[in-house]
Amino acid sequence: MSSLPVLGHDAVLAAVSPQEAIERVRSAFLAFHRGDWTMPAKVYLDSPPFGDFRAMPALGGGLALLKWVTSFPGNPARGLPTVTGVICVSDAATGEPLLLLDARSVTALRTGAVAAVAAQALARPDASTVGIVGCGLHGAWTARCLAAAGYGPGICFDARPDAAAELAAQLRWRAGKRSDALRGDVVCCVTPGSEVVVGAGDLRAGLHLNMLGADGQGKAEATLDAVAACSLFCDEWEQASHGGELAGAVEAGLVARDRVTELGGVLAGELPGRTGPEAVTLFDSTGLAIQDLAVAAAVLEVWREGRIPAQNVTL
Ligand SMILES: NC(=O)c1ccc[n+]([C@@H]2O[C@H](COP(=O)([O-])OP(=O)(O)OC[C@H]3O[C@@H](n4cnc5c(N)ncnc54)[C@H](O)[C@@H]3O)[C@@H](O)[C@H]2O)c1
Fold first, then answer.
1. From 3.40.50.1110, 3.40.50.10090, 3.30.1780.10, 3.30.70.260, which CATH number describes the 3-106+290-314 domain?
2. For the segment 273-314, what is each residue's pLDDT rounded down to a tens digit?
3. Which residues pair with 54 in a beta bridge?
4. Which residues line ligand 1 (CB under 6 A)?
5. Which pLDDT tens digit goes with each residue over 105-152?
6. Which residues contact 258 (CB under 8 A, 6 or more apart)?
7. Which of 89, 147, 163, 249 has a CB 3.0–4.6 Å from the CB of 254, allowing a cystine?
8. Which residues are catalytic?
9. Where does CATH 3.40.50.720 sit in the chain?
10. Does the predicted model carry a pTM greater than 0.90?
11. How many Cα atoms sit within 13 Å of 264 on the Cβ side?
């Protein structure tokens, strides 16, 4: 048997910069929109009362990927990360496994990257300031990717003031209250989604909201009336309408399919984005396997060029 390279968390982050992740993720959305990349909806496997596992496959660019990843919201209290898992990248022509990857680092990079892609596509062209609500792992990478895309300065808010202060210090931004963060041009919510952090009263003309934390059933970061009042966008309708920020408003009959535009169509210039400077846009990110494939393909290239070392296992 040939040997299989295994790349850990630090190797992934050394291989792909936030800027590179943003470009790759944008291209992946375009390839998916064209139908060149394919992706069945992710499968959730609940593990009550702890959290859930997700199986996320995607095919594109000569590669096939499966991510086996978790969301266990109670883990931080036990000193463990909310999101962990493994990615397997295979050759789409032979089925041969090519690479095993840490899923946590890939997920963090691609989640931050889509926040930047959505902001570039949907926020006002003159948008600059950022608000981050929820400064854990994915909030931090969202902030880093927005900074890499030229946004900032920003205000970081977290229920744990230390987490907000640490992230703000890293980026030379500022920590503040929730209401301060919500005054940004681009506001990103990346909390566990167990309590609402945006109400209808927080909406201002011209705001762009990236809702990233509610990526499974029963999670929400905005009230239903706030969601229904926005101009709505999502990464992928099936996922977003069943297990995303939009799901509650869809279930309540406040939002129908024809009110929601997928990001890929906007990026391709085929579907309308922001209608004007006064619009309040909301992007619902549930997290797509094509985003993981985009980052994993970049890691594979860097490893093949000999720019990062890997551990090897023989199956
Ligand atoms: N959309 C996606 O693609 C995607 C990808 C990965 C993770 N997620 C989701 O994002 C969420 C966050 O994941 P994480 O790994 O960053 O978790 P984390 O535990 O590292 O961070 C969550 C942060 O939110 C803070 N927080 C909790 N309640 C808050 C509140 N009411 N107001 C402000 N801050 C609050 C916590 O103190 C913590 O710092 C999870 O729900 C996860 O499932 C989404």
1. 3.30.1780.10
2. 999 999 999 999 999 999 999 999 999 999 999 999 999 999
3. 44, 69
4. 71, 76, 82-83, 107, 111, 133-139, 157-160, 163, 190-193, 195, 197, 212-213, 215, 219, 285-287
5. 999 999 999 999 999 999 999 999 999 999 999 999 999 999 999 999
6. none
7. 249
8. 67
9. 121-287
10. yes
11. 18
> Could you tell me the CATH superfamily of domain 121-287?
NAD(P)-binding Rossmann-like Domain (3.40.50.720)
For residues 55 and 146, the answer to whether their CB atoms sit within 8 Å is no
Closest CA to 163 of 196, 195, 137: 137
Mutate to test the pocket of ligand 1, among 83, 132, 133, 155 (most ligand atoms within 8 A of CB): 83
d(C-alpha 176, C-alpha 184), whole Å: 12
CA–centroid distance, residue 143 to ligand 1 (Å)? 13
Residues of the chain with CATH 3.30.1780.10: 3-106+290-314
Q: Give me the amino acid identity at 313.
A: V
